[in-house]
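Q: My labmate handed me this sequence with no annotations at all. I'd like to see what the chain might look like in three dimensions before we decide whether it's worth expressing. Could you predict it?
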Amino acid sequence: MPEERQDDMQERTAQKDGREGVLKLLLGRICCFVGLLLSAGGIVFAILGASVNLSAGAVGIVLGLVGYFLGVRRLGAATIVLGVVTIFFMAAASTGLIPGVVAPGHGYN
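A: Here is what I predict for the chain of 109 residues:
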């Protein structure tokens, strides 16, 4: 009897660990996809001249770090890299260093 009970407890623990692992990966992927969308959206907004707010890139980096630590290594690293690129691109766009992209509030009509 005690052996059956111990086996049953081990099965329950293994199932619980499996669910937690799947949940961590799902949450990590969601964080990474949201971070990628924010970073890509920040670049698009900078190109369109609508906004050069660096927050989108910073939040993308943070969400990439969360995803990385939750176990989604490659996607997390890609999200972090895109967030850094977004910050540099937006900083360059806000100072007028990118030809064809006019910084908001600096248009000469």
